[in-house]
Amino acid sequence: MNDPLPTPPLQTAAAEPPPPPDDPPASDVSNSLEGLLVQITSQDDYEILNHMLRIFAPIEVRETILGSLLPGGADPLQALDVKRNTLGILYLLSARLQVNAAAAPPPQFIEAFCQDFDPEQARLAPERVTFLAKGILQLGQQANEAIFSVKALADLLVRFPPSLHYLTPLHALFMTACVANRLFASATPILSESITEIDIALFPDLHYTDNLVYHYAGGFAYAALNQWEEAEEFFEIVVGAPAQVPSAIQLEAGKKLILVQLIKDGKSAALPRYTNPNLQRLLKNTPYFGLNRHYPQQQAQLRILIEKEKETFEKDQNIGLVKLMLEHAPRWAIKKLTGTYLTLSIPEIGKAISMEGQDEAVQRIILSMIEKGEIDAWLSMDGIVTFNDSPPTVPTRILTRTEIDVALKEAQRQAAILSALEREIGKSRDFLVKAARVKDNDWVGPGVPDEDLMFGVTPSGSWAEDA
Amino acid sequence: MDVEMADATEQASGPSKTSKVPIPTVVVDENHPFELETYMANYTGRIAIDRLVHIISLAPSIAPQALQLAFRHIQSLRDPALYQVVLSAYEQAASLGSVPLPAVNDIATVDQRWVDETNAKNQNERMKLEVELKTYTNNMIKESIRMAHRDLGEFYKSVGDYTTALKHFTKSREFCTTNQHILEMCLSVLEILIEQRNYSHIPTYIFKSDAALDQSTSVPENSKAPVGTKAKASAERERYQTKLDFAMALSQLGQGLYDKAAHSFLKLGPSAKFDDWAGKLVAPGDIAICGTLCALASMSRSAIKSRVLENETFGVYIEHEPYVRDIVEAYMSNRFKVVLELLERFSTRHYLDIYLSSHVHDLTNLIRNRAIVLYFQPFSTIKLDRMSTVFGWSVDEVERQVVSLIQSGEIQGRVDSQNKILKAKQMDSRAQLFAKALKAGSEMQSANRKLLLRMRLQQADLVVKPPKGQKPESAAVAPSSQMSQISEFSPLNE
Asked: The COP9 signalosome complex subunit 3 N-terminal helical repeats domain covers which part of the protein (chain A) (predicted)?
């Protein structure tokens, strides 16, 4: 009865080979929560325990039983120790949150678990952690306690992967929650650790959308915090993510990327070279691309364009960014003037940045730009602005020795990472096989390309199917 | 006859196509002297009519004179349709121009008898040539077929049907047996292309003739011929090289590649080498003007000195238009005001040249910009009113020019618009270098980070794929469940 059913999504991970002597006790406790509880507390080998929990009870009733209370209404979770029985709690808690939300354990318990659980054990059942995270989010939504779930998820996220450089399915969940509840500040500790590692063996339920959604939402958060440089990088990661067909998230990220670049640099840069060509084409057809043409000087045209495409911007939920971009336009126009002029009067500046007759507004912008260090200038009493000689991008002083040392060290570190990576690839099986094949072909000459063709065709054919 | 009529409309649309920028009406007065008679004395054949048509449509004040001249010239040709072209140009000028022009009948009359005679003659000639071609084709005599095609090509060219002429010339190529023939064909085609001002096609035929020339020079070498033939071959090359160079120069000018055009113009051989092209296509004075203007607009001072002033062959061309030498000399001695005045004074002459016309504006701008850049070079600061006296402009004009040059990055300086001073930028190269190095470093790191992540994603096969059940090509955008959630976010910073 068990077998003919389709495999539930949770069982995607390859099951550990079950040790035969442990099978009889597993079937003993097959349907009772109490029996399971005993096993959880007594079993010290977590892999065996994980296997047992995984195959516990027939599939249709498994979650219900895991999520139920003990006879007599006692909470099984209270009987377990957070640190020692992390794995057990993980299964029970995630099932409880999904199935039996009414009898949800107190938030304090969840919080304590998230802060204190044993990562080693949790990593045995990564899909359960994802499951738990989703449960926590649901709980937070129902109880209207977004802060609670975001905080719990953050704790979970910090401790669960070997380091924050690993991408986990939690990342996307956490960041979406942060952005949806506008808790941008709580996202920064996680965001500041850039993702460099992807390990399918550790987190078998990773999906490409996890990467896209995490970086998209991360870029969103940075944009909301006005940290444009980081936002740009995050959106760029999404746009440049490997793709056979462009995804909707990538398109949205591309739109936001253009806006962010306009705000940050006053012009939009080319998309990453490896961007999917279809995506580039799609983006070129959006009104966002047209903004670049008029930015920043021709504000009148810019306003017309924005007014015309207002609906699109509103539909894309980008009107906020668009407005911000428009606000930044005079700043970029002024910045361009600094390259051309030494002194200018305020009305002249107003004329140059098409804000004629709004001298006060122009003066305000200039003052705020001077304050923020965007331009190096001073304003005299009679409304003459004098721009200093050095463009603001160049440091006026010579760098100190320590700064140079830091930069050098960073460069050396990067070089080390790259050379280590190269060695790793150089000795990897895939590379060696390929290199050997190329060599063989060279030996044999161009007469027998068939073998290579065969190799080329077979894997890609099957691959397209399981996609 | 209807072929010729069709051609007439084509002709009329021809010049307007090449000059995209509407050229203002050109004034001819005391300050802008232009001697129509002396100017036109340099030209013969069809090009004279083309030039006159150009003049009629640009300079209404001398249009009647030009019309008379054109009518006189037409009689020496064999294309009655040209009457139509000239007349329509004149009428257009009359209808557009602010100056009222005298009616056509008052100035000149169409010689109807000549028209009829010529038409009949043309008809006969065509019949004759076509019959000839047919006979030769039947007899399969290669050389004769080639010659028949060539003659037909020449015929059609003379009656102004360029398309058919081109067809026959290119057709004759199949029957070419020697490189000499190919060369001849290429030159005929080039002639047509130049007359049509079809600049982009010119290089193709130049390369073809080059190849033909190369072969004719290399063949004797292989057969170990005596030195005499070799010398003959290089003489052959020399004979055509100037024509080819001229065609190349013209095509580069036509495409706005002024620096290349300058080089090509300046390496032209003596004018004797043009033989039949002189007057038919170009006058030596034109070469002097085009070459000099291109050189001034694109070359460095030292290059101008060595390649224009000290170039004896080109000097001969300049003799035909002495004012060109004045411009160059004024330029070299930094009397920019004189340069600009001379350019303005002779702008009529420049605008009325069919090859140069659409480029005068750009060239003048380029020369002026270079002059400003050159003038400012030795200064670290300079008052704008001093520049204004040198260039003969108002201070505002100077400021506008300078600002546009700064923005295009040609002048490294900034304007003090209060005190009207242009000040050179002071660069701290050391600090800039450091800043640049640091920036490059951080950019590299960020690129590395992104690439490594991308590599990992690919290794893990976390690639965006078309959703199941959808064909890859139709799946423009992969939908995802999270998307709807994301796009429900409230707008930012409200």
From this structure: 77-276
What pLDDT, in 10s, does the model give residues A404-425?
888 888 888 888 988 988 888 8
Mutate to test the interface with A, among B381, B403, B415, B417 (most CBs of A within 10 A): B417
- Cα A245–chain centre separation: 20
Domain membership of residue B414 (yes or no) is: yes
CATH number, position B408: 1.10.10.10
Report the 10 Å Cβ neighbour count for A309: 18
Interface residue A318 vs chain B (CB under 8 A): yes
Picking from B463, B478, B486, the nearest residue to A176 by CB comes out as: B486
Tell me the Cα Rg of chain A: 29
pLDDT average, residue stretch B237-257: 85
**In-domain check, residue B439:** no
Residues of B in contact with A252 (CB under 8 A): 483, 486-487
What confidence tier does B217 reach under pLDDT thresholds 50, 70, 90? Answer: low
Give pTM, 2 decimals. 0.63
Is residue A379 within 8 angstroms of chain B, CB to CB? no
Q: What are the chain A neighbours of B465 within 8 Å (beta carbons)?
A: 208, 244-245, 467
Q: Is A419 an interface residue toward B (CB < 8 Å)?
A: no
Residues 17-36 of A with CB under 8 A from B: none
8 A C-beta contact, residue A43 and residue A52: yes
- Containing domain of residue B402, as a range? 379-424
In total, the C-beta contacts within 8 angstroms joining chain A to chain B are 199
Tokens of B50: 């083309």
Asked if the structure places residue B413 within a domain, the reply is yes
The residues facing A215 across adjacent strands are: none
* Confidence category of residue B341, pLDDT binned at 50, 70, 90: confident
- CA–CA distance, B342 with B344 (Å, rounded to integer): 5
Contact residues on chain B for A213, CB-CB shorter than 8 A:
480, 482, 486
ipTM: 0.71
B406 part of a folded domain = yes
- Maximum Cα interatomic distance, chain A, rounded to a whole number of Å: 93
How many domains does chain B divide into?
Answer: 1
Per-residue pLDDT tens for A299-353?
777 788 888 888 888 877 888 888 888 888 888 888 888 777 888 888 888 887 7
Q: Is A111 exposed, middle or buried (0-12, 13-18, 19+ CB in 10 A)?
A: middle
Give the C-alpha separation, B443 to B448, whole Å: 8
Counting DSSP H helices and E strands in chain B, the numbers are 25, 3
Which residues 139-178 in chain A show a CB within 8 A of chain B? 172, 176
Query: Does the pLDDT at position A449 exceed 70?
Result: no
B415 touches A at CB < 8 Å: yes
For B413, the 3-state DSSP assignment is strand
Q: Which of B477, B484, B487 to mutate to test the interface with A (most CBs of A within 10 A)?
A: B477
